[in-house]
Amino acid sequence: MSSPAPDPATPWVPLPARAAADLLGPSSARWWLSGGAALDHWLGRSIRERPNTDVSTTPAHLGALIEALPSGFSAWAPAGQDAVVAWADADLETDLQPIRIRDDETGAWVLQLNVEDGTDAAWMYRRDPRLQLPWDRAVLEIDGIPTGAPEVQLTWKALRPRPQDDVDKDAVLPGLSDDAQAWFERAILTVHPHSTWSIHVRSPFAPAKASWNRRKD
Question: Do residues 169 and 212 lie in contact, with contact meaning Cβ atoms separated by under 8 Å?
Fold first, then answer.
């Protein structure tokens, strides 16, 4: 019999990147740090406080990843607004995400598990499959932890950037390689041409051009 569903409003105690890797590492399923957790780990420092720790997987690997969770941790899927259901009781025919991982001893949420698209050969942008990258470009191995490439994480944020997303972008863009920055610019022009971030790529005369779209000497 499944445990009673916890309150989705239960506080988060996000796992650090290394602890997340220790939790998920024993599984052979594909997974990687994503979102702000990926940006922080790639940069080597915390850009800002994060409400949770994001990791991602693909539909083909989701079940195996959850089934490999060690004793003491459980997975919960969304069940309408402000409700969750145990993974074992979830309707697998629906889009079950994000999945929340719970530390059953403390009762806290510790990981948010997102489902992204991909084939055996390449990652695919869930919002627009025209945007693809080989897995070794989309997911980087950093200090032994699979980490979503920063240019990919910024592309996710580019749809409707919030002020905190601008903070992430400003911290990360100066460290991107020329190839990564070029890919990011092409990506947002292709899939998010109306983003406020795209404006500064399209127009060389935009005031923000000098702040993040031009290399500093």
Answer: yes
Cα separation, 90 vs 141, in Å, equals 32
* C-alpha span between 181 and 189 (Å, rounded): 12
Cβ-contact 12, 52 below 8 angstroms? yes
Alpha helices in 49-134 (DSSP H): 59-67
Q: What are phi and psi for residue 124, nearest 5 degrees?
A: -130, 140
pTM of the full predicted structure? 0.90
pLDDT tens digits for range 157-203: 999 999 999 999 999 999 999 999 999 999 999 999 999 999 878 76
138, amino acid identity: A
Closest-CA residue to 104 (of 79, 77, 69, 80): 69
